[in-house]
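Q: My collaborator sent me two sequences in one message, no labels, and asked for predicted structures for both. Can we handle them in order? The first one she listed is below.
A: Yes, handling them in the order given. First sequence, followed by its structure tokens:
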Amino acid sequence: MRFAGQEALVVARTLAGEPTYDIRLADGRLIKYAAESDLEPIEGDGPDSAPASARPSGDGGSNQGGMQ
């Protein structure tokens, strides 16, 4: 993510009302309650940018060769 042109990491999210985020900037500062509209995604960076084939399926795993 980017916040005001600086790389940032989301460390918390509030769910009440309009979503806001606590973010940590690359220089170590913590910004609390940043609006979602103030955050810019960085394309092709981070774990969410992995190809779909490299991501876990989310099905809880399979039981190949399990009990018969």
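Q: And the one she listed second?
A: Here it is, processed independently of the first:
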Amino acid sequence: MVYVDEIDVDQEGIAEMTLDENSIAQVARPGTSLRQATAKKHEGPSPAVRPVTQSGRPLTGFVRPGTQSGRPGTMEQAIRTPRTAHTARPITSASGRYIRLGTASMLTNPDGPFINLSRLNLSKYAHSPNLAKTLFEYIFHHENDVKNALELAALATENAQFKDWWWKVQLGKCYYRLGLFREAENQFKSALAHQDMVDTFLYLGKVYARMDQPLTALSMYKQGLDRFPKEVTLLCAVARIHEEMNNLTSATEYYKELLKQDNTHVEAIACIGSNHFYTDQPEIALRFYRRLLQMGVYNCELFNNLGLCCFYAQQYDMILTSFERALSLAENDEEVAEVWYNLGHVAVGIGDLNLAYQCFKLTLANNNDHAEAYNNLAVLEMRKNHVEQARALLQTSAALAPHMYEPHFNFACLSDKIGDLQSSYVAAQKSEAAFPDHVETQQLLEKLRQHFAMI
């Protein structure tokens, strides 16, 4: 219950992002990088249908470490980028998270530390394999002392005459934690030469993903699937990489294959459900979310999704009860804000604009950085001919979420309407950069260019 799973817990903090000295190609070829914005290439729903993250990828159906943020280009973006659905502040350093996770399991001792690591003779313990493994687990996971763990692993590997795959994996984990990815890669490959293990394939894939080599990571996972056919964790890892690379069709295929092996895999069900929802099949998405409910998943996000599916599937009797349940289960202000935002959408759908206005206002009362709510409030203000309020709201929305095309496009339309053609042109160009295939933006730009040509 207290073990920290190294395979899943992987988040790049601001320190890791800004102090990363590993050089990668600045302009990678399309489809070969996880860090390049992928907004220009769309497979499946466009940003007009499915919202995107700052890195230009569609939102996933399941919050995982690193999925929503991508890799921000600047420190300012890093601070603004939502890390998960819960908070807009990224962790300062991933190592801090490891310490918190590890120490949560150890009772604090008033007499001092459980083991005084500075006094241990590591070379002595390295000669006793079983004791050395126990000590390594304690040092690495509970004390988060990577330096001592690395020293012990190196001594134990040497003592085992470099033939023990387990110690090589531990060395790789230490190098990975220290940011030495090439050394970690060598250790994991060496471990695989001795013994095929699912974990080792997963670690290697993680190393390649961090080095921004998703295609190499995929080939490594495929090798793992050749040795361990239909292994659930490997299928899930492949699906995640496809999803991050915007290959939503391939990702869904792998999630479906995963469900054939493990029909209670929450991540796969949630991702397939969200994919059906955004491909205009809310009834099928509803079946997947109901399956999660049957399995015992009982949280705000699930009822929020159920409410939206019921609305788009025109099952109006269930909408309000689902959203009421979501509000009662919300654990923080951000979750409450998301529920009110979706209720605002329902109100717009049934034509009650006063209720929609109140809902979006409640969204901002709970989460002052909700860019979509600012955008939608601006549209409602435009309908009332409150031009200045609408402009201010759209500027706020565009500043909070420069990766969204809607506030830029709405600002361009509003500026064009009141005769501020220069502002309209600048905003339309930003909209085009965020969503190149948006037809109405192209039409507006063409109209403005013709007007400027006539001048």
